[in-house]
Amino acid sequence: MARLFSLFGERKLAETPTPDSATPAPTPVTNKPDAGIPYDGQLIAMLKQDHVQLVNQFTSLMPLLRNHDVRNFRSRLQAFKTEFQGHIIKENVKFYVYLEQSLAKDETNLELIRDFRREMNSISRAVVHFCNRYMDDPMSPLTIQKFAQESNEIAEALLRRIEREERDLYPLYMAN
């Protein structure tokens, strides 16, 4: 789990961006029934804030197991899963749909966005399956060791994904 903390250490300590502190954004498009998903000037700040909160939640799990606090572990794992799923829904509905509709005539970027979305859906399924698997497990020493290994793999995949989203996708949203 030490690797997990080193992977997420800077993010865990990073100041959580708040939508109020974001730079003013263009006025959102009126959401007419046929207008699609409107631009949200606060969305990127909210998604980045979600990333910080999710990392903090995830990094809090292993210390609970080390202390044999299985009850709090399960509670926090459930909370992480719930927050993670909420983040994925927000991304799918507000972020990806907006990008796909605004870049509908840009085949190159549209294909990139669709690839990112498919990849995230695959990662999302793996994370939810991981959470479900450990939610009711009795957490024997062997299971705890397995959790530690798998959680590092999940953490690495999530960190790579967060970095790519923030570096490659979020600027596309802000430019449209």
Question: What's this entry about, in short?
Answer:
By secondary structure, this protein is mainly α. The protein contains six helices and no strands.
Describe the structure.
The structure is a single chain. This protein is an all-alpha fold. Helix 5 runs antiparallel to helix 6. The longest helix has 35 residues. The chain starts with a helix and ends with a helix. The N terminus is likely disordered.
Shape: elongated
Poorly predicted regions: 1-33
Instruction: Supply the number of helical segments.
Output: 6
Task: Give the % helix.
Answer: over 70%
- Helix-strand sequence: HHHHHH
Q: Beta-sheet strand percentage?
A: under 5%
Radius of gyration: 18 Å
> Would you report the number of β strands?
0
Features:
176 residues, mainly alpha, 6 helices, disordered N terminus
Indicate the topology.
Blueprint: H1 2-13, H2 43-59, H3 61-66, H4 70-102, H5 107-135, H6 141-175
